[in-house]
């Protein structure tokens, strides 16, 4: 089963369960100035989760393209991307916890055929400070499902993520964590504004038993460990509480919000820990192999960065974003420029960005035909940025290489940016790749120069106005 079939199976399953299937929303939220991109399936539905009636009824589902710019630095491992699709289903005051968990099981085990002995789950372990009980109800449903499949399901109470890394889950099937399994908007349950909805959640993980635990992530492994042995494939949020002045009160209407990573689920289905091997990413990697002559096995990190960033930039262009120095345009510019700089390590120093767009368009022909329909404009937008940055990149790279054997200071980084327009982020990557020495005080030196420059320009503006 490929990624398109996983998506189709999910949507058909939700349709059978009486869900209305929604069209995808744009990557750029229309009337939400607080966030740059659609970063989850629930984001466009927030008003309905907060109480408004949805015209299509209380059961909704979709597959929503998402972009998370804060994940840019994480791209390069086997499971992070900036652009991805999120499978979602929602109950607006309709079905509850038990039906949701049973349906997730049916989806993963029966419809998608995942081996249930590779599945692990987490549940909310309770919170003493707020007097919130442990979510034994979810644990009981999971226990019964595993039991019916003939799978032993030991339970462990792991507490915080830090503690979980110290003690490990020791093969437990159902793991209680503390606030890791509390869903809310914003950073933490303490920071929730009064009135905001929140609740417990329950995640599903898929085990890649051949990947050994890496002690760099903690003494012992557990489902939320970042070593790559477990991959999170989906999460059911139970929005059933509301923040009050001194704690939490039950919400009058309970909602369910499920989000599952399409590419990660597809990776589990083909039993590959590397999501870049799934059918909506691998052809992009293969096209890059053709264009560069390099091999994925030899330059895995670079292939992943370029494939992810240019797929994301393509979808941004489809949704009307153009590279610029602010907001969405800035992130798009960063994706394209980072992809170009990284492609340089694959020997791709000629214009190539436009050559990848038809590959992306072909992959999404059946699902998002707008990619193909707008592909000429997309090529124009991406190629214009590529041409603009190509000269900067070539001059900058040549200049940085003249520093071999010398120490690079904050003043050098500032000058490269000021004179060559070479972004500091790229300079630092080049310093690393070329093995140059960086002055330990570079950060403060750079900050001082940037501040001085800002003050100078302010003084100049004042003069003009006088
Ligand atoms: Zn681990």
From TrEMBL:
GO terms for biological process: alanyl-tRNA aminoacylation. It holds the Pfam family tRNA-synt_2c. GO terms for molecular function: alanine-tRNA ligase activity; aminoacyl-tRNA deacylase activity; ATP binding; tRNA binding. SUPFAM superfamilies: Class II aaRS and biotin synthetases, Putative anticodon-binding domain of alanyl-tRNA synthetase (AlaRS). GO terms for cellular component: cytosol. The keyword RNA-binding applies. Keywords: Aminoacyl-tRNA synthetase, ATP-binding, Ligase, Nucleotide-binding, Protein biosynthesis, RNA-binding, tRNA-binding. Its EC number is 6.1.1.7. InterPro entries: aa-tRNA-synth_II/BPL/LPL, Ala-tRNA-lgiase_IIc, Ala-tRNA-ligase_IIc_anticod-bd, Ala-tRNA-synth_IIc_core, Ala-tRNA-synth_IIc_N, Ala-tRNA_ligase. Residues 1-466 form the Alanyl-transfer RNA synthetases family profile domain. The keyword Protein transport does not apply. Belongs to the class-II aminoacyl-tRNA synthetase family. This is alanine--tRNA ligase. The lineage of its organism: Bacteria, Bacillati, Actinomycetota, Actinomycetes, Propionibacteriales.
């Amino acid at each position: 089963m490929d990624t398109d079939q996983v998506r189709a199976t999910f949507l058909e399953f939700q349709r059978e369960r009486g869900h209305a299937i929604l069209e995808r929303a744009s990557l750029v939220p229309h009337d939400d100035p607080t966030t740059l991109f659609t970063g989850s399936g629930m984001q466009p539905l927030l008003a309905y989760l907060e109480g408004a009636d949805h015209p299509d009824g209380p059961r909704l589902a979709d597959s929503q393209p998402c972009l998370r710019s804060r994940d840019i630095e994480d791209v390069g491992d086997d499971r992070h991307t900036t652009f991805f699709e999120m499978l979602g289903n929602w109950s607006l005051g309709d079905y509850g916890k038990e039906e949701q968990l049973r349906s997730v099981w049916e989806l993963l085990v029966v419809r998608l055929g995942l081996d249930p002995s590779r599945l692990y789950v987490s549940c909310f372990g309770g919170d003493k400070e707020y007097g919130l009980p442990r979510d034994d109800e979810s644990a009981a449903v999971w226990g019964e499902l595993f039991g019916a499949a003939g799978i032993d399901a030991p339970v462990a109470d792991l507490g915080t993520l830090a503690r979980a890394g110290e003690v490990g889950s020791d093969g437990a099937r159902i793991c209680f964590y503390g606030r890791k399994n509390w869903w809310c908007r914003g950073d933490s349950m303490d920071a929730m504004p009064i009135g905001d909805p929140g609740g417990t959640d329950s995640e599903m993980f898929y085990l890649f038993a051949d990947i050994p635990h890496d002690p760099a992530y903690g003494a012992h492994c557990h489902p939320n460990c970042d070593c790559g042995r477990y991959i999170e494939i989906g999460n059911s949020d139970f929005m059933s509480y509301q923040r009050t002045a001194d704690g939490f009160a039950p919400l009058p209407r309970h909602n369910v919000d499920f989000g599952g990573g399409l590419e990660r689920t597809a990776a589990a289905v083909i039993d590959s820990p590397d999501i870049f091997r799934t059918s909506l990413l691998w052809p992009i990697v293969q096209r890059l192999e053709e264009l560069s002559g390099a091999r994925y096995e030899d330059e895995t990190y670079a292939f992943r960065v370029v494939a992810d960033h240019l797929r994301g930039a393509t979808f941004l262009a489809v949704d009307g974003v153009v590279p610029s120095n602010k907001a969405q345009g800035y992130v798009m510019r960063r994706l394209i420029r980072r992809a170009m700089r990284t492609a340089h390590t694959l020997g791709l120093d000629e214009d190539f960005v436009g050559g990848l767009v038809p590959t992306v368009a072909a992959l999404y022909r059946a699902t998002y035909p707008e990619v193909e329909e707008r592909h000429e404009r997309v090529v124009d937008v991406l190629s214009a940025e590529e041409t603009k940055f190509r000269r900067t990149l070539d001059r900058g790279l040549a200049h940085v290489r003249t520093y071999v054997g010398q120490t690079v200071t904050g003043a050098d980084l500032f000058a490269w940016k000021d004179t060559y327009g070479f972004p500091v982020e790229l300079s630092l990557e080049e310093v690393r790749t070329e093995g140059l020495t960086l002055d330990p005080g570079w950060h403060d030196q750079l900050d001082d120069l940037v501040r001085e420059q800002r003050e100078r320009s302010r003084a100049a503006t004042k003069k003009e106005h006088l």
